[in-house]
Specification:
This protein has a six-stranded antiparallel beta sheet with strand order 2-3-4-5-7-6. The chain has a five-stranded antiparallel beta sheet with strand order 13-1-16-15-14, covered by helices on one side. A hairpin with a 5-residue loop joins strand 10 and strand 11. It has two domains: 150 residues, Phosphorylase Kinase, domain 1 (2-Layer Sandwich), CATH 3.30.200.20; 187 residues, Orthogonal Bundle (Transferase(Phosphotransferase), domain 1). It is built from 13 helices and 16 strands. Helix content is 30%, strand content 23%. The chain is α+β, with helices and mostly antiparallel strands. The N and C termini lie close together (6 Å). Belongs to the protein kinase superfamily. CAMK Ser/Thr protein kinase family. SNF1 subfamily. It comes from Hibiscus syriacus (Rose of Sharon). Its EC number is 2.7.11.1. This is non-specific serine/threonine protein kinase. GO terms for molecular function: ATP binding; protein serine/threonine kinase activity.
């Protein structure tokens, strides 16, 4: 199956059609409204113009990412999200890029952030806490089975779909097993105060799966109580309480839930409950079947079987090592490159291009090669080079 690279050169460039301020993105997505913004990115609600499907688009500024030294983080986030296909994880649909931005096109979670449901001290019933915690652990356990550790689990990164089911988002601080050092641990200091595990703060290395379990424990406590377990105006005091595992339960907490949360918020990672132990716990399993993690249950088979047309992102992300190095490379501003897959033979592709050129008055064939063709506009302002790699 040949791979075709379409390289177009223009005398002038105009990226206005690629920018959300013009209300459309690459002529494919209509930008509806701004949902939120961060240091490097803005998130928009958008609509696929062809299908009408609602999507969320995260527009990441290349300039800000490069200046902050976070290009590798963005590449890793794309590669990680491409690995994951689970009903409780926000799906990455595709990645687009312009000269100035990288766009994550993702599944749209209509219900918004879980955080807004528990803001201002509101809390959930124990049964509702259990439902969301079961969904959270299902997704987290799946991530761990794929060698991915989120490292920033918190209600702000948990979204709700139209059925109010939970979806994990924002894998920007995630790690993969390839980052584990020879001592068997991760060492990057990251996370959000109030949710970060004490062993990360200790700066001695940590197990990615165990820090995710700690954060899940904090989330469960917040859903149940309406506030953080170790909350204190003085951050030093808060961290001291975390190291000691000192927190109190509200009076409405059942004995079974108290026991379960204590196992999740065990400051000693060696004795902290594991995901396997969680799914066998009596509190967790009440009214719920045991969760089992099998890759084939979550991979979207239609994406890997019988798919005859792949976009450039598919080609990149299916390749060995998820090589995304080209995303932030400095390219000539007047050159646009595209890749696509075709099942036709190289000679048939060139023959088809030749036919199209003959129907066009202002374009001519400048040069033919065995596996390529070079086209030029009569005034020289436009060049199209097609290289076929079989």
């Amino acid at each position: 199956m040949p791979e075709v690279e379409d390289t177009r050169s223009y005398s002038t460039t105009n990226e206005s059609s690629e920018l959300p301020s013009e209300n459309t993105l690459f002529g494919k997505y209509e930008i509806l409204k701004l949902l939120g913004r961060g240091a490097f990115a803005k998130v928009y609600h958008a609509r696929n113009l062809k299908t009408g499907q609602s999507v969320a688009i995260k527009a990441v500024s290349k300039k800000k990412v490069l200046k902050g030294g976070f290009a590798e983080h963005v590449k890793r986030e794309i590669a990680i999200m491409r690995r994951l296909r689970h009903r409780n994880i926000v799906k990455l649909i595709e990645v687009l890029a312009s000269k100035t931005k990288v766009y994550f096109v993702m599944e749209f979670a209509k219900g918004g952030e879980l955080f807004t449901r528990i803001a201002k001290g509101r809390r959930f019933s124990e049964n509702l806490c259990r439902r969301y915690f079961q969904q959270l652990i299902s997704a987290v356990g799946y991530c761990h089975s794929r060698g991915v550790f989120h490292r920033d689990l918190k209600p702000e990164n948990l979204l709700l779909d139209e059925n109010y089911d939970l979806k994990i988002s924002d894998f920007g601080l995630s790690a993969v097993k390839e980052q584990i050092r020879p001592d068997g641990l991760l060492h990057t200091i990251c996370g959000t105060p109030g949710y970060v595990a004490p062993e990360i703060l200790a700066r001695k290395g940590y197990d990615g799966a165990k820090v995710d379990v700690w954060s899940c424990g904090v989330i469960l406590y917040v859903l149940h109580a309406g506030y953080l377990p170790f909350k204190d105006p003085n951050q030093v005091v808060m961290y001291q309480r975390m190291f000691k595992g000192e927190f109190q339960f509200p009076k409405w907490t059942s004995a079974d839930l108290r026991r379960f949360i204590c196992r999740l918020l065990d400051p000693n990672p060696d004795t902290r409950i594991t995901v396997d132990e969680i799914i066998n716990d009596t509190w967790f399993n009440k009214g719920h079947n045991e969760i089992k993690f099998h890759d084939e249950d979550f991979v979207l088979k239609e994406e890997t079987q019988g798919k005859k047309c792949l976009n450039a992102f598919d080609i990149i992300s299916f390749s060995s090592g998820f090589d995304l190095s080209g995303l932030f490379d400095e390219a000539e501003p007047s050159v646009r490159r595209e890749r696509f897959i075709s099942e036709q033979k190289p000679e048939k592709i060139i023959e088809r291009i030749d036919e199209e050129v003959r129907r066009t008055e202002n374009v001519k064939v400048k040069k033919r090669r065995e596996n390529g063709i070079l086209l030029e506009e009569h005034n020289g302002n436009f060049i199209l080079a097609v290289d076929i790699m079989s």
